[in-house]
Each structure stands twice: as structure tokens, then as C-alpha cells.
Design brief:
This protein is α/β, with parallel strands linked by helices. It contains 6 helices and 13 strands. The strands form 4 sheets. Strands 7-6-5-8-9-10-11 form a 7-stranded mixed beta sheet. The radius of gyration is 21 Å and the shape is globular.
Length: 255
């Protein structure tokens, strides 16, 4: 069941209105689909495909990684995590018991062995340490439980505030996690969030960051050779596939 906006959220049933349902669920790579409304406001959704791909890319997930997901929702993102890492290695936490039941049923019907549990995602889940932690809802502060439950060198990806998602790497001593904003998109907040929206200056502060510094980039790794053997800097026009000296011809791109 999807919900379409017609001045208010109205249910769109897959059986009764397959075209309308498809339009809501598969609207486009930048379109989200609301799947639950609570007290007149969206409380669960399918994130747009562009953001899902961006966050999964930021997670740097590899086969064999143990994964903790916070916010199961429909279960689709958990299924993607399981496809990459191994379904039996993924635990997904959902605060809404009804959503958890339905997600568990969908995953089971698809043959995915992802573990779906009911709990407060802000507290993480037993079974740590995890190699990767991923949240599907926005937080103003990254819960410390997520850091302590991620192994040193592990990765945390979460929507942050109303700005976008961040990707953090846990320090080798396990006492901190640092990283960068990776993408810009707004997400639903954690259930029970009642604090007013903070502006960027309120989140960022007014003083200089402790580690703020200028950065330079060595363009050497981005240099390519065209078929004639002429060297060019990545980004300049190259009519033919580029290759590095001594390597097979291949197209290159920068993420």
C-alpha cells in the first residue's frame, strides 16, 4: 500500500489501482513514496532510489560484513544490504511493531534471511561489534551506542539533521568517529523527535572547527593516456576510451 498526496494522503492499493500504485512507488529516481501516515503526517516511506544508491555507496559495504540497520521500514533497504553482505549477517531494528511484522513477512516471502527485530534504534542492538551501521532516519546527534557497537575502522552512515547524510569511520581506539557529509537530502526524523528544527549555523556553530584546514589535491592519479599516447588530465575532452600506460583500454570515471 502506497499513499498519494491529493491535498491529503490517500491510500493507493496495488490491486485496485495498479497504475496509480506504480506511479507512486516507481515515480522516478528522485521521488520517494510514502508508505505510512501517523496523525496526518508521513511516518514511513520508500526513499528515492538516488539517495538509496548514494547511501549504500557511502557505506562501502563488502560481502561478509556484519551489518546493523536502524529503521527497517518496508524492509527493502535491509534486503539490499543482505544481497551485498549476506542476508544472515544483517540485523535490522524497527521501533514500530506493525512495520516490523510486515517487513519480516516481505523479506521471508522473498527468501531473504535478514533478521528483523523490534526496538529503539537509538540504542543499537546486541551482537556487537558490527562492521557497518546504517540508519534510515535522521538524527541531530549520532547516538554514542552506534559508535561503541561498530568495530574500529568500521563505517557508520546516517542521515544527519535536515542537511543530508554523513559517513563516519570509527577510530582505531573506538573512542570517536569522524567523517564528512556525503549527500544532501531530507529524511524523516526519529520517532518521538519534538525538538525544533535547527539552522545550519546552529548545528555548525560560529567558531572554527578544530580540524578545519585548506586542502590540496594531487592530480597525478587522474591523468590518463589516450590512444595516441598523449597524456591528458582527467576532465579534459577525450574522444576515445582512456587507458593508463601498459593497461588494457578501459573507460574511466570518477565517483
Amino acid at each position: 500500500m502506497a499513499l498519494g498526496w491529493r491535498g491529503t494522503y490517500l491510500p493507493v492499493d496495488r490491486c485496485d489501482d495498479p497504475d496509480g500504485w506504480s506511479a507512486e512507488v516507481y515515480g522516478g529516481p528522485d521521488d520517494a513514496a510514502v508508505t505510512q501516515v501517523t496523525d496526518g503526517l508521513p511516518s514511513s516511506s520508500l526513499s528515492c532510489e538516488a539517495v538509496v544508491a548514494d547511501m549504500l555507496d557511502s557505506l562501502l559495504l563488502e560481502p561478509g560484513h556484519r551489518v546493523l540497520e536502524l529503521g527497517t521500514g518496508t524492509g527493502r533497504n535491509a534486503a539490499l544490504l543482505g544481497w551485498r553482505a549476506g542476508a544472515e549477517l544483517v540485523t535490522s531494528v524497527e521501533v514500530d511493531p506493525d512495520l516490523a511484522v510486515r517487513a519480516r513477512e516481505r523479506l521471508g516471502a522473498a527468501g531473504d534471511r535478514v533478521r528483523v527485530v523490534v526496538g529503539d534504534g537509538g540504542k543499537g542492538w546486541a551482537g556487537a561489534p558490527y562492521d557497518r551501521v546504517m540508519a534510515t532516519y535522521a538524527v541531530d546527534r549520532v547516538p554514542w551506542a552506534w559508535v561503541t557497537q561498530t568495530r574500529p575502522g568500521g563505517r557508520i552512515v546516517t542521515p544527519w539533521g535536515r542537511l543530508g547524510h554523513v559517513a563516519l569511520t570509527v577510530a582505531e581506539d573506538g573512542r570517536s568517529a569522524t567523517g564528512w557529509v556525503q549527500g544532501l537530502a531530507q529524511f524523516m526524523s526519529a520517532r518521538g523527535t519534538t525538538s525544533p528544527v535547527r539552522t545550519f549555523s546552529q548545528v555548525r556553530g560560529t567558531g572554527p572547527a578544530e580540524a578545519e584546514r585548506s586542502m590540496t589535491r594531487n592530480l597525478g592519479p587522474f591523468r590518463n593516456w589516450d590512444r595516441s599516447g598523449t597524456m591528458s588530465t582527467y576532465g579534459s575532452r577525450c574522444e576515445s576510451p582512456c587507458r593508463t600506460p601498459g593497461s588494457p583500454q578501459r573507460r574511466t570515471k570518477m565517483a
